[in-house]
Amino acid sequence: MPILAWLNPSGVDAARAIADRVDIAVGSVEELRQLIADAAPLAAGRVRVHLHMDTGMSRGGVPLADWVELLRLARSGLGRIEVVGVMGHLPCADAADPALNAPAVLRMRQARDAVLRAGFGPLLVHLAATSGTLTDPATHFDLVRVGAGLVGIDPSETVPLRGAARLTASVVHSSVVAAGTAVGYGGAFVTERATRLSVVGVGYADGIPRELLAGASVAIDGVRCPIVGRVSMDQIVVDTGGLSVPRGATAVVFGPEGGAVPSVHEWARWAGSIPHTILTGVGSRVERAIA
Fold first, then answer.
1. pLDDT 10s digits, 46-93
2. How far apart are CA 133 and CA 117, in angstroms?
3. Chosen domain end from 93, 116, 151
4. Could you identify which of 50, 51, 73, 278 might form a hypothetical disulfide with 25, taking C-beta atoms 3.0 to 4.6 angstroms apart as the criterion?
């Protein structure tokens, strides 16, 4: 299975790509021209290239009007590059409606056929990411690019997947407060009753969205505890009600367990966003571990 690099802003280390067997996606005539020039001085080897065609997103990829020039240039660089793939993207795959995917599928077939007629092949043709993979076989071609699905996210929300990510943080302070106690910056939340509060050492610098709907919570000892007050840079306050929580206890921000543990999909709803932003927003100072 190839490793594919794309979104290269200022050229590619052609020698390194050849040595490490990394395929390079090119999304414009200019990119391909530069890659051929960068590969020209090399004594041996060819850079494996995937031609990235615009299949309807106008978000990178070679537009239809430039395909003839792209293929002419690719033929001229045959000694330095090897065209091994053609790729595109689905603009509307999250809708889980094959009819909406049909224009991109047609454009991908046209691109494949044009590249084959130009004398290149065999080719790896790929168009679908997670949503297309799960909902529309017509988008599959030779391989699919499952990204969000690997961590349990189906952007189309049609296929239940098990989450593969868990975010935890430690309780750093707990207290008992009276009714009428203001919590956090600006006193944006005021307790309506006597209760227990715990401070959890995670905040917006760690990926907790600052603007959250009511109900956003964490789980502590199997109990869902709502966040109260504003999210701070490196801490949140949760109302634990009658639960006495010692310092050092673990709060589960999100995870795949279900029950009291919030899911990444719930966090996306609380943040008015999508699950992808919750996972990719987890800050660099959060320690990572693979279970």
1. 999 999 999 999 999 999 999 999 999 999 999 999 999 999 999 999
2. 27
3. 151
4. 50
Which DSSP state fits 165?
A: -
pTM for the model stands at 0.90
Please report, for residues 54, 202, 275, the alpha-carbon distance to residue 69 in angstroms, rounded to integers and kept in the order given.
15, 52, 40
Q: Give the chain's radius of gyration (CA, Å).
A: 25
Q: Which residues in the chain come in under a pLDDT of 50?
A: none
Give domain status of residue 290, yes or no.
Answer: no
Same domain for 133 and 180, yes or no, is no
In sequence order, the 6+-apart residues with CB closer than 8 A to the CB of 236 are 199, 200, 202, 203, 208, 218, 227, 229
Q: What's the total number of domains in the chain? A: 2
Same domain, 71 and 202: no
- One-letter amino acid of 131: S
Residue 260 C-alpha from the chain's centroid: 25
In this structure, are 145 and 34 located in the same domain? yes
158 three-state secondary structure: coil
Q: Of 16, 55, 17, 11, which is closest to residue 32 (Cα–Cα)? A: 11
Strand, helix or coil for residue 36: helix
Q: Which domain holds residue 220?
A: 167-280
